[in-house]
Amino acid sequence: MVQLANEYLQIQIAEKGAELQSVKANGLEYMWRGDPAFWGKHSPVLFPIVGGLKNNSYTFDGKTYAMGRHGFARDKVFTVLDKTENSVLLGIGDTEETKNVYPFSFEFLIQYILDQQQLNIQYIVKNTDHRDMYFSVGAHPAFSVPLEDGLRFEDYALYFSDIENVGIYPLDDNGQTLRTSVPFLEESSILPLQKSLFYNDALVFKELRSTEITLKSEKSQHGLTVSFDGFPYLGIWSAKDADFVCIEPWNGIADNVDATGDLTQKEGIHALKPAEAFRRNWSVSFF
Q: What is the CATH code for 2-286?
């Protein structure tokens, strides 16, 4: 377990999956405890796909590959490449095992940086192959709700940074997004939390104007703000009746019901040229 701390935050990151497992601040634990009775993870990293593939497979260069939901990075042991008092850089690369499901040579790096009350997370994808590399990357952090004893899940709300008129894209039983959205937020920037919101899986957004979402309760001074400029998709999710909510910035999305299976045509896919690098940052401020 990798630990970082400053005057305001104490965090723990597991080498497996480079997964953020604990953030302590203001005398509180902000991350979901990972109870396997509901969902045994804390903050998995999604790479080289986000969401599920149609038929759990894709085709590239005439060959079919099988890959499970959200890719394989969350199950790989990352190497600590650099560590300072306030930051750590972890990475994985391609192996014979990854080539069986993902035929590209790559480096995938994740950097965690403490900056006062803010935790910055950077994803760096490097194409070390001789051809264009196709991938998606995303975050899946689960935050405890309620954050404090004496409060309930329903005491909290999500506050979007912009007034939204936006629908959500429902998922079918196989985890694929449907063709069209259904109305959801109408001239509103506030989503009161109810556990029933997630009984039909995640809330999937493609057209948000907001680049920040704050989780807080009017009954408490404590909460957090997730900032995700540069991430075109967002998921909000919780396991059924669990005491957490995931706020998930995505560069990529699950296959839709009309997906052809061709990786190069996948919705939300990124094409990275040889020897180039892709970088995205998101952050959480804790109060």
A: 2.70.98.10
CB burial class (10 A; 0-12, 13-18, 19+) of residue 119?
Answer: buried
Q: Residue 142, Cβ neighbours under 10 Å: how many?
A: 26
CA distance 205 to 197: 14
For residue 208, what are the β-bridge partners? none
130-144 pLDDT per residue, tens = 999 999 999 999 999
Give the dihedral sign, CA 204/209/215/220.
negative
Distance of alpha carbon 23 from alpha carbon 12, whole angstroms = 7
* pTM score over 0.85: yes
Cα separations in angstroms, 256 against 161, 208, 228: 28, 18, 23
In the chain, where are the structural domains located? 2-286
Handedness of CA 200, 284, 228, 193 (dihedral sign): positive
The side-by-side arrangement of strands in the sheet containing 2-5 is: 2-5, 10-14, 19-25, 28-29
> pLDDT digits over 189-235, tens only?
999 999 999 999 999 999 999 999 999 999 999 999 999 999 999 99
Instruction: Kindly list the distances between the CA atom of residue 61 and the CA atoms of 94, 98, 102, 129, 260, in Å, as whole numbers in the listed order.
Output: 18, 17, 12, 14, 14
Asked whether the beta carbons of 272 and 259 are under 8 A apart, the reply is no
**Cα–Cα–Cα angle for 149, 155, 161, rounded to 5 degrees:** 120
Considering only CA atoms, which of 120, 4, 19 is closest in space to residue 78? 19
Q: DSSP letter for 202, please.
A: -
Could you give the CA distance from residue 11 to residue 241 in angstroms, rounded to a whole number?
A: 26
